[in-house]
Design brief:
- It is built from eight helices and eleven strands.
- The chain is α+β, with helices and mostly antiparallel strands.
- The protein has a five-stranded mixed β-sheet, with helices on both faces.
- Helix 7 (184-193) crosses helix 8 (207-226).
- The radius of gyration is 20 Å and the shape is globular.
- The two termini are 27 Å apart.
- The mean pLDDT is 95.
């Protein structure tokens, strides 16, 4: 957490809220979150640049920066700030009304020319903020799997990936080298929706089963984006507000409760991948 829907929500918000502003100063309050730059180098590289575009790759939020002088729109960014929120990290825009309690967890601040600030805040500081050139980011991104919502990843392509894997299907879904952006919440949900046992070896899925899984995975990710993500615990969007998809969860966080399909009690286990897995032993095969 945050996973694809949450990082997509934050990226879309920030793209609308801060693009076109100039970074007039950088404050690094907790340098242990930085990667590929030290505090002085990070501040020196970004000060004076404009925020040109904010987008998502996998579970990453990517901020493209450009010189303030006119450059062609097609030109590559000068630097990319690559944020991996992990468990408790997030980006929030502060117009001066952010509470002192929220500011207590700010690790990095980009001060903007319109008087606002863009904070990276992280309660446990397990997330990271990296400074990458476009070439370095391309190398990094190429090590990740395809995006589940990419229309180029059709049933045949997804089935091919699944049938190559000896992993448990839940582990496969969460392996960022094979499929980018899916974490524990949406792996649980997609497998429950497609009626597939999360412990099944991926390569045993038929083409019909893998097609159903892809369809349900895309459906649940799309629905969560529409609900602005799942705020189960720490996640907040770029405005500091909670996502509402938690109200639609059918498996994750519901161990011991009745299955919404058959009424049997949902099973909770950590045996598959060390993470909380919730499934229906009656429905999922």
């Amino acid at each position: 957490m945050p996973e694809l829907p949450e990082t997509e929500t934050i990226a879309r918000d920030l793209d609308a809220m801060v693009c076109g502003t100039t970074i007039v100063g950088v404050d690094v309050l907790k340098a242990d979150v930085l990667r590929e730059a030290d505090a002085d180098g990070f501040a020196a590289a970004l000060t004076g640049l404009s925020l040109a575009h904010v987008w998502r790759r996998a579970k990453l939020i990517v901020l493209d920066t450009r010189p303030c002088t006119a450059v062609p729109e097609a030109a590559e960014p000068l630097w990319r700030v690559v944020v991996q929120p992990r468990f408790t990290g997030g980006l929030v825009v502060d117009d001066g009304t952010l509470t002192e309690a929220d500011r207590a967890y700010v690790a990095v601040t980009l001060r903007l020319n319109d008087g606002r600030a863009l904070h990276y805040r992280d309660v446990r500081r397990l997330g990271t903020v990296a400074l990458m050139s476009p070439a370095r980011f391309t190398t990094y991104s190429n090590a990740l799997g395809p995006e589940p919502l990419d229309p180029r990843l059709g049933d045949a392509e997804f089935s091919g990936l699944v049938r190559e894997s000896r992993q448990a299907i839940k582990v496969f879904l969460m392996d960022q080298r094979r499929l980018a952006g899916v974490g524990n919440i949406y792996a649980n949900e997609a497998l429950w929706l497609s009626r597939i046992d999360p412990s099944r070896e991926a390569r045993t899925l038929s083409a019909q089963e893998s097609g159903a899984l892809r369809a349900q995975l895309c459906a649940v990710l799309t629905a969560s984006i529409a609900a602005r993500g799942t705020s189960f615990r720490d996640y907040r969007d770029a405005r500091g507000e909670r996502g509402s998809f938690v109200e639609q969860l059918a498996a994750y966080g519901r161990a011991g409760q009745p299955c919404r399909a058959c009424g049997y009690r949902l099973v909770g286990t950590h045996a598959i991948d060390g993470r909380s897995t919730v499934f229906c032993a009656h429905c999922q095969r």
